[in-house]
Amino acid sequence: MADIKDRIAKLLALAESPEPEEAKEALLKARKLMVKHKLRPEDCTKTDSVIRSLIGVECTKMTDTWATNLSAVIAEHYCCTAYRSKRARSKKVEIGFIGLEDDFEICKNIFLYAYNCIKNQCTKIKKLHRCEGYTGAELREICNAYGWGFCWGLEDAYKKQQEANQEWGLILAVPEPVRTAADKMGMPSSYTQSAIDIWQKKYAESGYRDGENFNPSQYLNG
Asked: Within the chain, where are the H helices?
């Protein structure tokens, strides 16, 4: 069994190859071996400690309401679980992740990259419309519409990737130690999406397109 685990570990490492065909073939072989021997990825690789940590990003029920949804969408795709923490007598909540050490770092960095992409675009939107007489509340709603649209587009993009690559299912599963740590914290919570009015629809559609086309590979390579 040790030899099988070692072989799977090498295939999983090869699955990170920058050559798409080579990576896909290695991933397929690893998956077949894991299914045959009833093994999970964490059974074949070194056991990292489970990290549970806040990452310094805050939001409220009115501002950046999309941020909690964004964290959940990204966490699911990077073998982690998202959560949020609220300080006593504060309207703000802070976003955090639970994951194995390596997964946690990747998940956190991808989230921060996506979060900053949205915030930068929101800054441009505010600058464009502030002189047109929009109130602060209206600008906030426009930015929230864009942020929610980005989340929807990103979620759909991930679903399409997984449908096109069914063999990713086992690899992307949240490891058992992470699920156990998350279960101890109770049910996850998130802000509900407020209704998007017709005049905000174009901003949600713009966000959707950006989320659908979001590609962190350049950031990861850097």
From this structure: 2-14, 20-37, 41-44, 67-77, 101-129, 136-164, 168-171, 176-183, 201-212, 217-221
